[in-house]
Amino acid sequence: MKFSKTYTLKEISQIINSEFVGDSNFPVLGMNEIHVVVEGDIVFVDHPKYYDKALNSAASVVLINKNVTCPEGKALLISDDPFRDFSKLAKYFNPFQKADKAISETAVIGEGTIIQPNVFLGNNVKIGKNCLIHPNVVIYDGCTIGNNVTIHAGTILGSDAFYYKNRETGFDKLISCGSIIIEDNVDIGASCTIDRGVTGNTHIKEGTKIDNQVQIAHDTVIGKKCLIASHVGIAGCTVLEDEVTLWGQVGVISGITIGKKAIVYAQSGVGGDLEGGKSYFGSPCDEARKKYRELAGIRLLPELISKVNNI
User: Does 305 have pLDDT greater than 80?
Assistant: First the structure.
């Protein structure tokens, strides 16, 4: 998330009541998670295992729970609870705005787009030309929809990321302040849910087609001309490259990449990166031909055991 103006390190420290290391006038341009940070951003880290990754990332400011040596050209915000303070910044720079009507006055709707009854469009939603938005679709604040997009009834775009820290008092939620971008010529079926990014964008690229009852989690990027069948669940920060096909009830773990033109057969569980241009099956999935040979071998086991026992 980029801020509306440049803030100083001192100003940011005052918002969260933290100490800082660096020039008080050090410029701060935004805040992001580690996988999408760029120069000028704040990133947070609260576990020693990830200190080096955060300190050596593209982020200019590291919100951290230990006073460590500050890398050259960067600044530190020292906090007893970086997770809490990152959420505090998210609330400060992207406060929740209560809706007072079904279609916000700040929503922009392109020429030729049809909005069916009972649709909700939040603040600053942008919808392109010649789209069809069916009844009971909900599009949260800040989502951007391209041209020639169809969204079927009951679909929800922009719900919060499923992102929590387990504390003794219960689960503490990381506040989402990202959004969703849907490119041109995308079709989204009925009763789908697509979560917004934590600080960046969940992104569905041009020409992708999504069936009914599909869940796509925060910060996931779906490439061009992908096919995603019913009941697929994709966890956060996943990348599907162009022309990937996921058949029904495929489950995909977070933070992986599925290569271009890969095909994953129904009811498979994807637990790691998949090379493009191949077909996969099983849970955990593997190349389909290999998996089918394994299944054929398993079917022969009772007969082989019986022969061994009769020797």
Answer: no
123 and 188 within one domain: yes
Strand 41-45 with 61-64, pairing:
parallel
Residue 289 CB contacts under 8 Å (≥ 6 apart), including other chains: 279
For residues 232 and 159, what is the distance between their CA atoms, to the nearest angstrom? 17
Question: From residue 48, how far is each of 9, 66, 223, 232, 297 by CA, in Å?
Answer: 23, 9, 34, 35, 46
Q: Quick one: 125 and 62 in the same domain?
A: no
pLDDT at 106: 96
pTM for this predicted structure: 0.92
Choosing from 47, 203, 218, 231, the catalytic residue is: 218
For residue 219, the model assigns a pLDDT of 96
Q: Which of 285, 291, 283 is nearest to 273 (CA)?
A: 285
Structural domain contains residue 305: no
| 101 within some domain | no
175 and 141 both lie in a single domain:
yes
Instruction: Let me know whether 50 and 142 are in one domain.
Output: no
* 218 tagged catalytic: yes
Question: What's the domain range around 203?
Answer: 108-289
